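Interim report to the steering committee. The following record documents the input for PIN-like protein (424 residues).
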Amino acid sequence: MDGVTALLTDELLHMTSLQVGSATSLLQFALLPIAKVLVLCGFGLAMATPYINILTAPSRRVLSKLVFSLFLPCLIFTQLGTAISFQKIFLWWFIPVNIVIGAVLGCTLGYLMALLVRPPPQFFNFFVIMVGIGNIGNIPLVIIGAICRPDDNPFGQDSETCNSEGVAYISFGQWVGAVIVYTFVFHVLAPPKDANRESSPEIDIKVESISPDHIDDANGFSQTNFLPDNFQKEDSISVPLLLPQSSDTLPKVSGRWLENIFQPPVVASLLALVMGSVPVLRNLMFEEHSIFFFFYDSLNMVGGAMIPCIMLVLGGNLVGGPGSSHLGLRSTIAITITRLFLMPPIGLAVVLMADRLGFLPPNNKMFRFVLLLQQSMPTSILAGAVTNLRGHAEKEASAILFWEHILAVFSLAFWLFLYTKILF
């Protein structure tokens, strides 16, 4: 009897140690990518302080344009091109569908929350986007890399196979995310119509000498009628500097809709789909020792700059501190809680329903895990980059992303633990 008791005790201790070790590993997986994000943002914040003053506001704007026009297209082309094939398009079709469903449900939930919370009118659309558009790229990639690194990972695969499979699934979904961000989000986050008027600088015009007796003979009235009664000689008048209206705020003619849709990341996604799906083109570009592999390798190096540059820009936008946002505490809390704690259960229900309907590949736990990750992330960092491109709500976006990534340490630990319990 004592032997049986001792055996049960040892087994219980062993199971407890496994659970503690599993919980510790999950916490590490959740903490590692968030820590990397915060460190990179910290560098951007330091570079933007008055003491260093390298990453100034104009510099951040230029860097955002580089990310949009060069770094992100290169990253999408290289990752998606190597991951995709004609057969995989039909096997993995639910990955982009899952992203679109998540964006639709997220924006719907964000719209309802915005009606309830009532953010400042100029940030209503911003509120909806920050809730609805999640990070489907860099943080999931880091999480997959961290989980697959040990050979005894929960997916039962060797480290290289586990990581390459997860990266392929994530890359296949990134092109849809880029299309959503740089078409729908880019349009919705347009500055309000009166933004240019409110932010127009003023210039001082110094009037050295005006004679009160000066009469315009042609019109027959005194020019001093246009001046204040208390105006004195040598005074200066501050008048608004009327800037030409930005092309972003001008009405778009119907013939330019294609130009607005086919932004550089979208074009890169389409090229990658074509070249990755056609065997002849794939062998010419993506196979090692092929004729144009040097070109692919060059694009891959350029694309590697995308994530660090976005993090530096977002960190630099925090130079006034997260409290410099004009969004308001109630709206900030509502966005953070909705994105991190209300959206994941909705995403979990979508994935479980799709699995029950037979839309997912059978017995593929990594596929399901990536789908769940897509629904559990903080707000998309690309959405923050769009605010820089648009010149509207940059500080608010940086503050939201700052607080979300702080709280994501705890939310991701909980959701990762729950997902592993469901999948394994």
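The first helix runs from residue 2 to 48. The committee is asked to note this result when reviewing the revised timeline.
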